[in-house]
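Thread amino acids onto this structure.
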């Protein structure tokens, strides 16, 4: 390398963003991202990428710039597809986060035990003939959400149900308010149907 060539001061941030979202909890990199935000956005735009920064919730991520005929031919990031069940779990986690943010919580991050997530999910998923298989399926969906980066294991305990997860706020970028409103409407209809069936 030519000794006169300088590495961009925000090169490390670009590498991190290409691997996945960046959060305020990564303090040094978060501060550098905010410091070079405009330079980063300008550079990334040349690569067909848009830098999205949510300072209030403390996360940033990249998305492809789709520009008509020049629709992103170069794919920098892995595209994820979700099954129906995974999509439902994703929305459920988003709903839990919305409830948390409307509460008078004194902490910034939502931490939930695996058992608490399972109990919440049981209200929406239709139980299978075998309860053991049903709970294993919910466990699998929780593990998938961790794999996709929407949950972060913060306390690994011997009993799996006692494991604690942080519901990452970047989930809000995946599930917006409109999707959440539709889900809440469906949930209300489901409750009304269940109540009618009991009468």
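Threaded sequence (199 positions):
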């Amino acid at each position: 390398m030519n000794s006169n060539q300088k590495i961009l001061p925000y090169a490390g941030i670009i590498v991190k963003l290409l691997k996945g979202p960046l959060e305020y909890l990564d303090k040094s990199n978060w501060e550098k991202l905010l410091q070079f935000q405009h330079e980063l956005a300008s550079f990334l735009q040349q690569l067909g990428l848009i830098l999205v920064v949510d300072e209030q919730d403390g996360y940033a991520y990249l998305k492809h710039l789709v520009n008509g005929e020049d629709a992103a031919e170069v794919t920098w990031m892995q595209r994820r597809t979700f099954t129906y069940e995974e999509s439902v779990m994703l929305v459920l986690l988003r709903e839990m986060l919305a409830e948390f943010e409307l509460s008078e919580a004194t902490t910034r991050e939502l931490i939930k035990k695996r058992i608490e997530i399972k109990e919440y999910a049981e209200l929406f998923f239709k139980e299978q003939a075998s309860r053991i298989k049903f709970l294993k399926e919910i466990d699998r969906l929780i593990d998938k959400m961790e794999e996709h980066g929407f949950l972060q294991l913060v306390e690994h305990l011997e009993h799996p149900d006692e494991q604690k997860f942080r519901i990452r706020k970047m989930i809000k970028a995946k599930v917006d308010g409109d999707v959440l409103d539709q889900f809440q409407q469906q949930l209300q209809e489901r409750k009304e149907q269940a109540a009618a069936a009991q009468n």
